[in-house]
Amino acid sequence: MSEEIDVQEGPVEDPKLALSRRSFLEVLMASMAALALPACEFRSPKEKVVPYLDMPEALTPGNAQWYASVCQGCASNCGLLVKVRDGRPIKVEGMPEHPLSQGGVCARGQGTVLDLYLSERHQQPTIKGKPATLQAADAYIQEKLNNAQGKIYFLMAQNSSPSIQAALAAFKKKYPNTVIVRNEPVSASAIAEAHRLAFGKRVIPQYRFDRAGVVVGFNADYLDTWLSPVQFTKAWSKRRQPGKKMSKTIQYESRLTLTGSKADERYRIKPSEEKAALAYLLGVLARHRGGAVAGTFISFTNVALPDEIKKALVETARRLIEASGETLVVCGSDDVESQLLVCGINSLLGNYGETIDMARYSQQRAIDHVQPLLEDLKQGKVAVLFTWETNPVYAVPGFKDLMQKAGVTVSLSSRNDETSAASDVIVPDTHFMASWRDAEPVKGLYTLGQPVIRPLYRGTRPVLQSILAFAGVKQTAYRFIRKVWKENIYPQVKDAKAFQAFWLKTVQLGFVETKPAPESTPSIRMAAVARV
After folding, report:
1. In the chain, fewer beta carbons within 10 Å around the N or the C end?
2. pTM for the whole thing?
3. Structural domain range at position 253
4. Would 502 be classed as within a structural domain?
């Protein structure tokens, strides 16, 4: 007879660990009280409120004020409104009246407020890594400039400031061996070079997305990163209203972008297929055009492409032909041959003078090649090298070693980056919200920015002031900007009153727009396009 085993259902509890519901709640409440007690011991630090001895008429403590400025987050130079409360900038918004931003502002623009209070900003000049005064740094640099036996280079990011250009001209007049190079890691110089070859004018034209009924992009993320995304987004959205005139967006790209996600039609192409796709589209358009153009570009349809891409390009060409004069084709590649093909496509479609404006060209991304500087550094021909708001040590391979061959290197940047760390002298720039700035992002559109806060550090100064000091111009940055505007910009404004009234109105509004002299679009050199 088998032995019966008593099996007890449910978990076996240790009597010593038994805990009633009442005891559990008591322990829980006691734990919560213990956690809350330490918080009662810590209070916010006491702050004294010191009233104004002489209250400004337009200021009410606690109420925000808005000031017009120009964004320096990138080379687009959009118009900004800076929100200031109790003397501190706390927020930025786009300027609704500004022709470019039209009330918009990108993430980089919003981040400029954080950049103002960034702890990594330089607080004072340094010479060979040791703290120095502005006067000592000026004397050291002036001695090096006066004894310079080689070239003097200014390596800087793209900057459209008319005052900076005038200051550099004054510097170059004193030191004729000065070479100015504008360079950025993300370049659009291929667009300018392609227009030089095709039209004889090295410019980046204005793209009028607000006039385009059909927009075709090839790896051009114009709603997010390409050239002037805030401006393009505002213009593009105007034609995206439901109705008969709603624009059509077609995107050919290698990876999903913001523009591609918003497109009506999106086709994925390899980076190696981009030039072939442009050539095929040009060939299809030329075949439809007929005549000598067809004979020149008919061979462009023989490129190797997947059949589905060729079929899509034929359909795209049909849409472009139907909307000729109201179309726009753009390419984000920094390849001159690809951009030449785009010039040919837009020319066949009659877009120049309609959706592409070469008279009011962009000055936002037209940069120079850095190769001549590298060659001069290798050969020891550089006596003084200035860098400003560019980080070639990070972006250009081997630049740190080449810097050591220059007589002296001077960083005018505001941040502590790799190039500043490798420089002999640092004369830090102030934040744009703490200084007077101006810009001409588009030909004939001048934007003015005023300081909305005092410089947070006494050892910094506007880069314009530094250039003037090195050039021996004994004038403040504010006076110099007023002089440039009075002599060069004010005369272009029609029906302008006295300069003082014009100046005050511009400071308040933040920009002034002039009309450049009308000029006809030059004829394209199709032979340059055919050589691709």
Report:
1. N
2. 0.83
3. 189-365
4. no
